[in-house]
Amino acid sequence: MTTVVVSPGTTTVDSPEPAAPRWIRPAVAVLLLGTAALYLIDLSISGWGNDFYAMAVQAGTESWKAWFFGALDPGNVVTVDKPPLSLWVMGLSARVFGFSSWSMLVPDALAGVASVGLVYLAVRRLSGPVAGLLAGGLFALTPVAALMFRFNNPDALLVLLMVAGAYFLVRALEKASTGWLLLSGVAIGLGFLDKMLQAFLVLPAFVLVYLVAAPTPLGRRLWQLPAAAGAVVASAGWWVLAVAVWPAADRPYISGSTDNSVLELAFGYNGLGRIFGQEHGGGGAGPRLPEGLDLPGGRGGFGGFGGATGLSRLFGDQFGTEASWLLPAALIGLVAGLWFTRRAPRTDRTRAALMLWGGWTVVTVVVFSYMSGIIHPYYTVALVPGIAATLGIATRELWRGRANFASRVVLAVMLAVTVVWGFILLERTSGWQPWLRYTALVLGALGVVALLFGADRLRRAAPVVAVLVLVASVLGTASFTVVTAASAHSSGMPSSGPEQQRGGRGGFGGQAQSDPEVNRLLQATTTNWAAAQTGAMQSAGLALNSGKPVMAIGGFSGSDPAPTLEQFRRYVSAGEIHYFVAGGRGFGGGRGTAGQITSWVEENFPATTVGDTTVYDLTRK
Predict the structure, then answer these.
(1) d(Cα 231, Cα 225) in Å, to the nearest integer?
(2) What is the pTM of this model?
(3) Which of 102, 36, 91 is nearest to 68 (CA)?
(4) The Putative mannosyltransferase YkcA/B-like C-terminal domain covers which part of the protein (predicted)?
């Protein structure tokens, strides 16, 4: 392995992997078991999590067509506004174990454990087992990771696939293997089927590191990379093609698209629209916030979900405590590592590893910082593997080269920045465990002094200094991670940390509490749809609490043209929908198709009050 200060370039990516010390295997077992406990214990505390996706999982347990397309109801009117890969996994689990909170959430928790394990394996192969353990531990102890690996948003599976792509790439680097490189492409292509273009954020780093560091002539590298791109297209494109050739009249409408196509959704609403601020989908109708819906910062549009653009975004009130705890230190370590390996051979292990994980981090930071469209703080879970691996590699190499004063200075700076930034983040919830930030500050100060004065170079003192530095660095992020895992989370905008940290952020898409009397009314129905309601944010609660199929008119936002008024009238005439439940919320603002349907129902069917809810019986006029 390369030592960044003492002897850079002595080990290349095609060198044999060094033997691991005996204590590594027990340490890895502790890491994985601890991660499993963190992510799996009391997993059902959040109930259905995000009702929107839970509604689609429920539909997939009742209809294989709904499962394949990711429809919100078993009648296949409209899909979720994402591809269905994560829904496939959760839906299969729910079919095997029965539909419940636990069966739906356990695949994501296991994806978290697998992600930590793959980060360890990938980092170990280029930077050794100690760096791998550091990277895996830092990954598991990031708050947004504990948040998303215990939740039913698609981000958990996305991260696993991105990390798998990195692991396969590392294997490809060792012998310039085309097979491993193709597997890396397949993993990223499957990531597209989970969350579309977000999976491609790692591709610039993947391409760069293979082009620079693969131990094979340039000509071979130049044809291997297009082959890997073909693997990406093939693994992502088969489902896109299936949707395109399937008769539109025989499948659900692709929610969020303007023309009922997956590609328009991918490059419009879920693609360039997120980057450049196109804030609409579903027929092109710009969404308006429902009455009473509050957004962080009081902003009145989708861009308000992420706050102002700029490099400060990821450190601000909304994003800071999710994943930025170790980000400054990782960036410092990246710069130092690349500087110390500047004269190393082209295939140097350490530089290749830093280019891979550091490139992942930098590209994702820049994109998330300057996105002008919809962005949520929990998106930063995609940053966690890059931050953790970069910091693990840089810390291990700097520690190995600590005989050089420059290495100790860099380590001291990284530690100082981490504890000061952690103090600031903890102070944002000043009423919660104030002793933590002061303890971390004191331990950090002791660690900085020990590093600068060379106490770490004393044989018996080195382990003590190492533990001191590690505890000071992770105390803040670890405490936020534990309290995140121990807390319930719901809504379309979950956030990490203690309750007072999360309570002021607002949100949408939480667990809708449908009227118990309405639930009983729907449970007595025998029609294809027990009820219809505008927008998935409310209709999901009806479906989940009653256990009956509910049509979400207009999809997630209420603005999709699905069903059309004519289609809805045919369903009613055929006796397929029993009730229309008023009070649905969506971003359509009562306009478009949803507004037309609502007006038609109000004009043609009698209204009755059930509990506190207005209900229309569509089986009689």
Answers:
(1) 10
(2) 0.92
(3) 91
(4) 524-604
